[in-house]
Design brief:
It contains 5 helices and 10 strands. With 271 residues, it is of the alpha+beta class.
Length: 271
């Protein structure tokens, strides 16, 4: 048998493998070439539930490979913890096709110029009137608890929309507090809290809501901890902040689920 490249039972590597690591030329590969996964909440009309039958309504999953991170169902509820790193907002546009069906059109950044645009729009194309629904998403790049301290970990994007947008309030408010503190040059609050977006830990779960016609799952969040200056997670989060803050968020993040859903995850989801 040839020389073993990896020593069994350890992280030691052979001279040959070390040479491989050091000699590979990645050319123009950059951190921006990473595809950032989303954290999604499955609804009754989600393709992975309705068509593929690979997941259940209420699953909290990773968009790129379907890994189940948690559950919003009461009977087997499982929350996940995360550190928020960076916030951005987007408009997601769907065309209304009728009978509760919608077709994904585009995702665009929210700007000061379009932040207050109408959520329902109509446009005449070749003599035919088209109706569109725009949904504002509040998105956060986050590090999951299981990735704390892992140098190979890639952040996820956690999107909040429609009835789930209420769950973003506590995180969005925290970012706003940090913004005020920065302008006032206050680095630590009177209670000893570091005034940095990634100096708090939050928990993501969910719950079932309903009206007379439908039921659907929504995210819920709460603060569960804080991070001190000596905590290595602070620097890990800041390093990622420096990277993701420069991303083209619309094209950088996995948006594949937008084209798979018949409609935005909201009151239109039936169980």
């Amino acid at each position: 048998m040839g020389t073993e490249l990896v020593t069994k039972g350890s992280n030691a590597v052979s001279t040959e493998l070390n040479s491989m690591f050091e000699s590979i030329d990645f050319g123009n590969v950059e951190s921006k070439d990473l595809l950032i996964p989303k954290i999604l909440l499955m609804q009754g009309q989600s393709e992975k539930v309705l068509k593929d039958a690979t997941h259940k309504a209420g699953d909290i999953i990773k968009s790129t490979d379907g890994t189940v991170y948690g559950s919003a169902r009461d009977k087997d509820a499982k929350a996940l913890r995360f550190i928020p790193i960076y916030m951005y907002k987007t408009w997601v546009k769907h065309e209304v096709l009728g009978k509760g069906k919608m077709q994904y059109i585009s995702t665009t950044p929210v700007t000061p110029q379009n932040t207050d645009q109408k959520w329902e729009q109509m446009e005449e194309i070749d003599g035919v009137m088209h109706t569109y629904k725009l949904t504002k998403n509040i998105n956060f790049y986050v590090l999951l608890e299981e990735d704390f301290g892992n140098p190979l970990a890639v952040p996820h994007v956690l999107p909040f929309r429609s009835t789930s947008s209420k769950a973003a309030d506590i995180i969005e408010s925290w970012f706003a507090e940090c913004n005020v503190a920065q302008r006032a040059r206050v680095k630590v609050s009177p209670k000893g809290q570091l005034m940095l977006p990634f100096a708090k830990i939050f928990e993501l779960g969910g719950k079932l809501e309903s009206n007379t016609d439908n039921s659907w799952y929504v995210f819920k969040t709460k603060e569960v901890g804080s991070i001190t200056e000596s905590d290595e997670r602070l620097m890990q989060s800041f390093n990622w902040y420096q990277t993701v803050s420069k991303f083209d968020h619309v094209n950088k993040v996995d948006n594949s689920e937008e084209g798979q859903q018949a409609a935005p995850a909201s009151e239109t989801s039936k169980f």
